Amino acid sequence: MIELSEVSRTVTSGAGPLTILHPSSFRIEQGRTVAITGPSGSGKSTLLGLLAGLDTPTTGAVSIDGVNITRLGEEALARLRGEKIGIVFQFFHLLPSLTALENVLVPMELAGVADARVRAAALLADVGLTGRGHHYPSQLSGGEQQRVAIARALANDPPILLADEPTGNLDSATGRQVIDLLMHVNRDHGRTLVLVTHDPELAQVADEVIALRDGRVVSRTERT
Q1: Structural domains in the chain?
Q2: Distance (Å, rounded) from C-alpha 125 to C-alpha 21?
């Protein structure tokens, strides 16, 4: 479970303090798919960064499975993130000097996972990339790179997957394939899935949609 309690984020700009996210409170239950939507500049990616522990809230607390991550030191936070959270980015963030297989291997090698190479190959097969593990990112299409990024995010079997505009850099057909893959990850493996998206098709498949505007939660819509 993910819980936010009066979480806000304010940064200093040339004109003075700028509040990117106003105090917000909500819970995301285990196994749910939640889409965070809103126009550019509404605070979506900031909110996702706070959920991931990549940013520190100005006020409030973020809890993952009852652990207040805002109180953790860097080492403990990195350990929790490695165990519980997988992150998928819009622009993939693959290491260009490593093959697809090696990119998926990185988090497992850092965690000391046994039989990491076998698991990495299995993950690539799960995302439809059997036989592509020896290719470098520059040799893969955008959709293939995003599939590698999803496999990497799942490397340590995290219960939570966070995705920032996972279809934003893809054409509609490839985006649909990535949506189907993410929903497979959620429904067949019971992972909590939180998606930041401008894509109405992606938002439509979520159990719940949280809409932001000007750094505030303006609506929460349950899907039936």
Answers
A1: 31-44+79-222 (3.40.50.300)
A2: 39
